[in-house]
Amino acid sequence: MERLDKLLASTGRWSRREVKLLMKEGRVLVNGVPVRGGEEKVEPSAVRIQVDGGDLEIRTRTYILLHKPAGVLSATEDPRQETVLDLLTPELRRQGLFPVGRLDKDTEGLLLLTNDGDLAHRLLAPKSHVDKVYYARLDRPLGEADREAFARGITLADGLKCMSAGLELLGDGQEVLVTLHEGKFHQIKRMIASRGATVCYLKRISMGPLHLEQTLGRGEYRHLSVEEVIKIGGKP
Ligand code: URA
Fold first, then answer.
1. Nearest alpha-carbon partner for 169 in 182, 151, 152
2. What is the 183 CA–ligand 1 centroid distance (Å)?
3. 36, 27 in Cβ contact below 8 A?
4. Residue 57: is its pLDDT beyond 80?
5. Euclidean distance between CA atoms 168 and 146, whole angstroms
6. Best of 132, 189, 190, 192 to mutate for ligand 1, by most ligand atoms within 8 A of CB?
7. Which residue's CA is minimally distant from atom 7 of ligand 1?
8. How far is it, in rounded angstroms, from Cα 170 to Cα 135?
9. Across-strand partners of 110?
10. Distance (Å, whole) CA 35 – CA 28
11. Catalytic residue among 5, 52, 104, 118
């Protein structure tokens, strides 16, 4: 349930003051009945809201977990190259979705798409520190000294200091799991380069409470469950 005045203002068509006036003048109908007090709560999907006789379209918030394939841009549009939005149905494409953060064109894995700007803002804020876990295959193994360097915080070639990060060595260390609490440009590739190795393959496997399941193929996506939306701080 949401307050009617907030709901009207959230469409971006009127300011809070204008909404108040519209209601006072009896121009807002809920199920055909004028509602004059903004504090009234309604369930947007269950009622018909009209303003000046026209139906009000309330855009619901959408949260999509995409398995981004390599070769696709983490962007909403591009004149020449395929973007992650091109992977969605036309109906979803009309919902104003955008990726929360970016994966490089050649990186695969979990990408959250939403039209919840507040949530995206919060998740991307430097102090949000949402853990992101990546699987990487390298051209040569890393070892214990590299794990310790990651834990201390890597300084990149340009002098940029990274926060402490997790490095889990898988097998002989040529495959690793990296856990980041921040998101700098090409961060994993640059951190690994600072240790003298090169990333040959990179895939994000989790972001906070969201995990990329094995059953979701490259280019496939699904809506977040209500529990997941709540866990990431969205509005179910
Ligand atoms: N780090 C990278 O280097 N690339 C990505 O796409 C994500 C993290």
1. 151
2. 8
3. no
4. no
5. 10
6. 189
7. 103
8. 10
9. 67
10. 6
11. 104
Antiparallel, parallel or unpaired: β 199-207 and 108-114 = parallel
Token pair listed for 228:
């997941």
User: 41-50, 164-173, 181-190 — which is least confidently predicted?
Assistant: 41-50
Q: Supply the pLDDT for residue 2.
A: 81
> What's 79's DSSP letter?
S
Question: Which residues lie closer than 8 Å to 156 by C-beta, 6 or more apart?
Answer: 162, 184, 190, 191, 194
Q: Is 139 assigned a catalytic role?
A: no
If you ran DSSP here, which 8-state letter would residue 155 be given? B
Pairing relationship of beta strands 166-170 and 175-180 according to DSSP bridges:
antiparallel
Residue 99 and residue 221 in contact, taking contact as beta carbons nearer than 8 Å? no
Residue pair 68/107 in contact by the 8 Å Cβ criterion: yes
Q: Report which secondary-structure segment, H or E, holds 229.
A: helix 226-232
pLDDT given at position 224:
96
The pTM is what? 0.80
- Strand partners for 55: 50
Distance (Å, whole) CA 235 – CA 83: 26
Task: Give the amino acid at 199.
Answer: V
